[in-house]
Specification:
Elements lengths: L2 H40 L1
Length: about 45
Amino acid sequence: MTQQDTDSSNEARRKSAKRTALVVAVIAAAIFLLSILQMLKVK
């Protein structure tokens, strides 16, 4: 593997990791908001 191949591979992995982190953050935020809404409905 050349240096350029390694750089492009690392860049692709970094983009994939950012996308995965964004999806996980959105799911966590949605669960958090739904739990807040559920607490408000109970009262």
